[in-house]
Design brief:
By secondary structure, this protein is an alpha/beta fold. It folds into 3 domains: 188 residues, 3-Layer(aba) Sandwich (Rossmann fold); 146 residues, P-loop containing nucleotide triphosphate hydrolases (Rossmann fold), CATH 3.40.50.300; 74 residues, RRM (RNA recognition motif) domain (Alpha-Beta Plaits). It has 14 helices and 20 strands. Helix 11 links the parallel strand 10 and strand 11. The two termini are 42 Å apart.
């Protein structure tokens, strides 16, 4: 089955960590997997499940807890792409509780979710926990940082038949909390103190205390390359976004204070290339399904080295190259956790706005629950919308919405031409995504 799954995923070869994880999974006892962001940890714990899942069991067999909605959804997406034939569902805050209740009436073999939402379902006895044999705690260090200890502890107490506990982390915690029940695990440690070979770390000096003009100049210099700008707080993200918007710079934002729909839409537009600049908090440092990032900009310096490492982990992944920029005001010095002497980048005297992306995002008010598929959307946009294949980009179908990347120059006319069209014999709203 593993061979078929790898074909479905279009993966020719597993890395050393993934191979070791599959082997360790077969041993008795629990497992702790320590591996950096971008190393393929999700497959590292999903692939070994192929030997654990029993098609004759009707209840939930594996529970996966993730600290963020985006990470939970990403894990679900990867499992579906594996094509195992086993049902999977994802539960998280901001998602329709009614939809989740209905899904759980026909239990999945693999249940994925955030601790708060999973705990809520278990409290209401919507899941028979006696069939759960495997518990996976993904990004466990982040879950503790976000305050999920009580929920995770309560969930574990409600799992009486656990046979295996898997703890996944991108940092090496000194001590595993007692509530996990993990005592003498097999430990696979693939963490390294050495920065990725393809990562270059540079600095940019801001003239005054406000770094905004420096940020704008740097983004203009970098042009249309995938770039994440990290701030320490949500209000900084919002403030910078407002000011960059005044400059006419196309971008989006991402932080934990946003509505789930807005967060998902920001990531979709970043993935499909409608914009190349995302201003964010450390929420985007780990566990997001976003493409390879070429540049990381630390608008505000993270207080801890671990946060700096996780931010930089979004670039120079899997042998690619990337650059991490620190914007330093006159009063700021190089952080102690950076040992090498930083090279300062020169900025141009004149700023030229990056060209607009080729792509823009089309919104269709219908999704999986309305039985809309990618094929339906492709048919509509090519046959009725008269798009060429190279004018249609990434399509993402959600529960009640679909987003499609289309050539920016065509989107206005496309919306006009499709205003009275139907999908699945039903008229749906079609518009430019906000």
């Amino acid at each position: 089955m593993l061979k078929k799954v790898l074909e479905n995923l279009k993966i020719a070869k597993l890395n050393d960590m993934q191979l070791a994880s599959i082997k360790a999974f077969k041993q008795e006892g629990d497992l702790v997997l320590l591996s950096p962001t971008g190393s393929g940890k999700t497959l590292g714990f999903l692939l070994p499940l192929l030997d654990k899942l029993n098609p004759n069991v009707t209840g939930v067999q594996v529970l996966v807890l993730a600290p963020s909605r985006e990470l939970a959804l990403q894990i679900e997406k990867v499992f579906r792409a594996m094509g195992t034939g086993f049902k999977v569902n994802c539960c998280y805050g901001g998602h329709s509780m009614k939809t989740e209740k209905n899904n759980l009436e026909f239990p999945p073999a693999v249940l994925i979710g955030t601790p708060g939402r999973i705990h809520a379902h278990l409290r209401e006895n919507r899941v028979d926990t006696t069939s759960i044999r495997v518990l996976i705690l993904d990004e466990f260090d982040k879950a503790l940082e976000m305050g999920f200890q009580d929920d995770m502890s309560a969930i574990i107490e409600l799992l009486p038949k656990l046979q295996k506990r898997i703890l996944i982390s991108a940092t090496n915690a000194q001590e595993i909390p007692a509530f996990t029940g993990i005592t003498e695990p097999v430990v696979l440690n693939y963490l390294s103190d050495v920065a990725p070979k393809g990562l270059a770390v540079k600095a940019v000096r801001a003239e005054g205390t406000d770094k905004l003009e420096t940020l704008f100049a740097l983004v203009c210099k970098l042009g249309n390359k995938g770039t994440l700008v990290f701030c320490n707080h949500r209000d900084a993200v919002e403030r910078i976004s407002d000011l960059l918007g005044d400059y006419g710079l196309i971008h989006d934002i991402f932080h934990g204070g946003m509505e789930q729909e807005d967060r998902e839409r920001a990531l979709i537009k970043f993935r499909n290339g409608s914009h190349h600049l995302l201003i964010t908090t450390d929420l985007a440092a780990r566990g997001l399904d976003i493409p390879e990032i070429e540049n990381i900009i630390h608008y505000q310096l993270p207080p801890q080295e671990s946060a700096f490492i996780h931010r930089n982990g979004r670039t120079a992944r899997m042998h690619a190259e990337g650059t991490s920029y620190l914007i330093l005001s006159k009063e700021e010095s190089q952080p102690d956790y950076i040992k090498e002497t930083l090279k300062f980048e020169e900025l141009p005297q004149k700023n030229v706005l990056p060209e607009k992306s080729k792509w823009a995002t089309l919104y269709i008010a219908g999704g999986k629950k309305e039985k809309i598929s990618k094929g339906d959307v492709v048919g509509l946009l090519i046959q009725k919308g008269k798009l060429q294949k190279d004018e249609l980009g990434l399509i993402e179908v959600q529960d009640h919405a679909t987003y499609a990347a289309v050539t920016r120059s065509k989107i206005q006319n496309l919306v006009h031409d499709l205003r009275n069209e139907k999908i699945k014999n039903k008229k749906v709203k079609i518009d430019i995504s906000k």
